[in-house]
Amino acid sequence: MTRFSEKALFTLLLCLFAVLVLSLTAGLGRVARMVPLAVAVPTLLLLIGQLCMDLAPRLAEGLSRWEKRDLFSVEPLREKSLGRIETDENGEPSPRARRERTALLWLSVLGCLVYLFGFLAGLPAHILLYWKMRSQARWAPSAVAAAGMLILLYLLLVQVLEFPLYRGRLWDWLSRASM
Amino acid sequence: MSESILQSAWHGLVLVLSWPNILYPVIGTLLAMAFAFVPGLSGVTLMALAISFTLNWEPLPILLVFGAFIGGATFMGSVTAILFNIPGTTPSAATMIDGYPMARQGHAKTAIGCSAMSSALGSTFGILVLIALIPVMRRAILAFGPPEFLMLAVWGLVTIAVITTRASMVKGLAAGGIGFLISFIGFDPRTAELRYTLGSPYLHDGLGTVPVFLGIFALAEMIHLSATGRRTISGGRRMEELKGSIWKGAASVFRNFGLFLRSSIIGTVVGMIPAVGGTVAGFVAYGQAVLTAREGKERFGRGDIRGVLAPEAAHDAKDGASLVPTLAFGVPGSEGTALLLGVLTLHGLIPGKELLTTRLDLVFVLIWSLFLSNWMTSLLGVATVGQLTRLTVIRTELLIPFISGLAVLGAYVSNARIEDVAIALLFGVCGYYMKKQGWPRVPLVLALVLGPLFENNLHITLRLRRLGRIRIWSRPIAAFLMLLTLATLALPFIQARLSRRARP
Amino acid sequence: MAGKRIRWLVPFAAGGGYDIYSRLLEPHLQKRLGAEIVPENMPGAGGIVAATTLMRSRPDGLTLGILNAPGLLVAAMTGETPAPNPATDFTVLGRIVRNHAALFTGGRSPLRSCDDILAEAAIRPLVFGISEVGSTNFINAAVAAFLLGIRAEFIAGYPGSRETSLAVMRGEVDLAAFTFESVQDRVDTRDLRPILQIGTTSLSAHPFLQGVPLLGGPEGLAVRRAIELRRDPRRAEEDAGALIGLTRTGILVGAPPGLENVLFRCLEENLHETLADPAFQAAAAGARRSLDIGRADEAEADLRAAEGAAARFVPVIRDVMSRMRS
Fold first, then answer.
1. Range of the domain at C15
2. Are residues C172 and C222 in the same domain?
3. Rounded to an integer, what distance in angstroms lies between the CA atom of residue A47 and that of residue B177?
4. What pLDDT does residue B236 have?
5. pTM
6. Among B35, B125, B380, C181, which residue's Cβ finds the most Cβ atoms within 10 Å?
7. Does residue B200 surpass a pLDDT of 50?
């Protein structure tokens, strides 16, 4: 997906959120909907305006020139006083799509591990897998890093502070199965 | 200042500095620093967990320890904000705006030095105000009612709107609007209706600020670092290549002393607003720093030291200020002071007239402990800055799973609900795309925090006015804040006009 | 229970009243049971989140909790938010304290007595401050206003009862309802003045409650006003009794439903002994927390009575709520 259409898609999602809020507002009483309505309508109008500019950049550019400012963020602001737009070590803009998908995937993995196995198992497991598979570290340092997190969680939160950590859905299922 | 206040202040100081009492604030400060450095954990978490430990303690060590907890957490939260773009505490989020770009440019030491000095002096300012207000504390608190809180919320929103729309007015305002809409989720106390909860009991109390902050800043940053393949936070620089100096950072506070004073005043006043003051004080101070800057406005957001100085002064000044409503009437000024209130009650110390008259020496024990821990934190933070900045040269691929994991843990710890983790992850993804597509995140989170304050006080003020209970124009503080808001709105236009005239 | 770990659910944030009672109980109950008690703050939905979690936990004696009985009953009664019913959805182990509510004016208010209130109400509606529509304080205020036959306006949205008390002290509202204990420090400093006790007997021996009229009872103000307004005095007495009964269900200790009898007896007995322990009572007094302990059967009887009686004034509550929404 090109950067441009991704921009419009993101704005569209925000618009849909505002539309959802507006539609739910209709079911509220007069007092409860007063301020939300007063906020939702202009927000939606602004979002629709931004969406139009995302879909028709020439129009936005023209309006921005008239406003003498980058009103609708058609292009990144020029770095006037400090440095250039960020590049990688080779001076080329970094290809983000693949890395982005990978980053989001690893975040999902973190969420799933915590949800299923809880914090005590999920966080160290995430570190172990991330270091080994993503950062290309060796098994030994990865295991040490994971163990470090486990020790920190167990000693500090469980033993010293007695904080009840989430144990994971798997634990709940197993507990119920054993009843 | 009356003799009894001075006597109590002296007696309190003697109690704090004596042996073995001095151990309590020292250990309390070290613990609070450690907790605040871990994203998501904070001094508040530590206080909540420590309540059981201290159940059988005498009042004196309790005050020493809890005063240290309040003071010790603030600065270290800013260190993570500077180094990793992750607010260690929600009030530290404003420091990120310029602190993190400074770290990326290899100036982490300068930023931390400035933060340390600004924190220590800002907290001293807040404590001096607290002490000065002791004789009139109760009158001062009663002078603030719904119209004043409403105008403070409006001023805060306008300040943020004016500065964050520099890049894109439409996106800034729309992001603020979205933050506002999110703030309406939950139970409406005025009508007992559930708004936008989609039938979920989890959303009854709305979205918590901690999971949202951690997601939209911390997790989004981790995704961004990973997606851009940035090798280290300091941009591939090695330790010996890191520029900057602690002393240069500390000296900048004195070079911009007017800004420091204004920010401390803002932190003190805004910090007294119950519940939300701490989070927004830094942002409002940042906003006024941008608005009142005579030159180099375009550097804000890209590593301007003034953008670190202002929020740091404000959110440390608020520590002392947030004690004012707590001590005067038992109305907590922040989450930390809510816990402090519980602890005080548990040990028979009831805030109010009695505490401020017959037990004033214990009040000063709390104040001195807070003062001591603020300075200790800054000094220790500066002493360890060399080690801390090493973290910016570690490969991000090794740091990311730790920081993400701790952020997710922090989201859970705030309320012990796994749904908060889901919220943090969701806002992590949203925050990343907002950053990628050039949508400012600060107006969203600020509107989220200020929304309930604004809506509640708007409704109450309108009702009171309709019932003839108040006359808005006879309230000088509200009127002053209204003028301040108008001045904030007008200032950019006036400045633009003056600069156009100045050009040949 | 020896050696076990008991999860103790607290429905509000750390530092609040329920948390304080929990922390006070913790060491004493721990010693008696031989088990480790781990308080877990679970704020949300006015106590409903913790109550729901407790209700859904396994009845193995390893999860207990402290319950806001009036709040849960009110939520169940008004039906706005799905809430467990303390009368039917828990195993009640005992009561820590009964809530005693009263109406208060500001220390500097010209309204210094019930007679002043009634006289002023004849001229204009009185303004009540409340934190949340549907809260126990709201119910107390709305029903008391109805029973007194006064025109009332309600201003809701103050963040908590302390902030509401500041509104009363500032004079922007005329009155508010609070539990006496929660504002006793402000009564002592004369920042607040109690003007009507929501009870059939005096709430406590506090000197500032001497001479303050009672709402309930055959000689109470509800009955006197009913006679003046030509309403049914017996109904007024019953309505006042229902309101008082609701408030008095108090703060309870509960366990999930379906607790085995052996476990129930063990926990109930140990809880009662803990609450009656002079050391615990001294600790509570030191923290200025009053106690009005009751055994499980007594607490359950209160709940059943309150549940039935409270339905009487649901129409009054709904009427006020619909006015607040429009």
1. 5-98+249-311
2. yes
3. 10
4. 62
5. 0.87
6. B35
7. yes
C38 at the A interface (CB within 8 A)? yes
Contact C74, C242 (CB under 8 A): no
Chains contacting chain C through 3 or more C-beta pairs under 8 A: A, B
Which of C26, C157, C172 has its CB closest to that of B189?
C157
Do C107 and C94 have their domain in common? no
Question: Which CATH number characterizes residue C198's domain?
Answer: 3.40.190.10
Calculated CA dihedral for residues C103, C109, C115, C119, nearest 10 degrees: -110
Q: Using pLDDT thresholds of 50, 70 and 90, give the confidence band for residue B1.
A: very low
Choice between C54 and B74, residue whose per-residue pLDDT is larger: C54
Contact state of A135 with B181 under an 8 Å Cβ cutoff: no
Number of independent structural domains in chain C:
2
Which chain A residues are within 8 Å of B415, Cβ to Cβ? none
Q: Could you tell me if C94 and C207 lie in one domain?
A: no
Q: Note whether A31 contacts C38, CB cutoff 8 Å.
A: no
The pair of structure tokens assigned to B396 is 């991000």
Type of residue found at C170: R
Q: Indicate if C59 and C114 belong to the same structural domain.
A: no
Mean pLDDT of B351-380: 86
| Nearest alpha carbon to residue B409 among C225, A153, C191, C96 | A153
Together in a domain, C75 and C209: no
pLDDT band at A130 (very low <50, low <70, confident <90, very high): very high
What is the distance between the alpha carbons of residues A17 and C264, in angstroms, rounded to a whole number?
49
CA-CA distance, B437 to A76, in Å (whole number)? 9
Predicted local confidence at residue B241, as pLDDT: 60
Q: B326 or A61: which carries more pLDDT confidence?
A: B326
Spatial neighbors of B65 by CB under 8 A, at least 6 apart, are B24, B25, B27, B28, B50, B54, B369
CB pairs under 8 A between A and B: 176
- Of residues C7, C40, C325, nearest to A31 (C-beta): C325
Beta bridge partners, C102, equal C178, C197
| Per-residue pLDDT tens digits for B57-96 | 888 888 898 888 888 877 888 888 888 887 777 778 889 8
Judged against a pLDDT cut of 80, whether residue C14 lies above it is answered with no
Residue B504: its pLDDT value, please?
A: 58
State yes or no: cis peptide before C70, omega within 30 of 0: no
Give pLDDT, residue B130: 87
Q: Is the minimum CB–CB distance between C7 and chain A shorter than 8 Å?
A: yes
Do residues B325 and B138 lie in contact, with contact meaning Cβ atoms separated by under 8 Å? no
**One-letter amino acid for residue B489 of the chain:** L
Segment B416-431 mean pLDDT: 94
**What's the whole-number mean pLDDT along residues C15-43?**
87
CB contact under 8 A, C43 and B205: yes
How far away is chain A from the Cα of C236, in angstroms, using its nearest Cα? 32
Chain B CB contacts of C125 below 8 Å: 467
Which chains have 3 or more CB–CB distances shorter than 8 Å to chain B?
A, C
Residues C175 and C282 in one domain: no
- Is A30's Cβ below 8 Å from some Cβ in C? yes
> Each residue of A98-116: pLDDT tens digit?
889 999 999 999 999 999 9
Instruction: Residue A56: count other Cβ atoms within 10 Å of its Cβ.
Output: 12
Strands of chain C, DSSP E:
5-10, 36-41, 63-68, 91-97, 101-106, 126-130, 152-156, 176-179, 192-198, 251-255, 294-295
